[in-house]
Amino acid sequence: MTETMTVSVAVEGVQVDTAGERTVLKSAARGKYTARAGKHYVRYEDASLHDKAVPTVLKFHDRGLTLIRRGAVDMQLDFRLGEKTRSVYRTPYGNFDLLVECKKLDICFAEGQGTVQAEYDMHLNDVLQSHNTLNVVINAISE
């Protein structure tokens, strides 16, 4: 059975680069939550990084979290506690090799709402770029 509902998605990301500079990105959007085959999907438009909104998917599963963006940039980040995962970040300016080292991952999710908290290090072309935290709050919206 597939379940779909409208949700609000609030995202706060904090990056601390290797020089200690802290950047905070916040976004809020309406999206769609779908549950299918033991996986949970939240689809929304994220306008925090670029001039135009980028279609974004959060996929929760028993092994962790996957963040997928397609549009002005293409990327897929896999967060698996205690693991290093690789992906490619595709931009109009070229492609970059990304490595995510997930230090903390807490997913509390039930009936289309919940929270995700992740702490991770981001490496670009095998060079440490930043220490990051990601906090996502998802709430069901009655229509």
TrEMBL record:
UniProt xrefs under Gene3D superfamilies: 2.40.128.20
InterPro entries per the UniProt record, alphabetical: Calycin, DUF1934
Pfam families assigned: DUF1934
Protein name in the entry: Uncharacterized beta-barrel protein YwiB, DUF1934 family
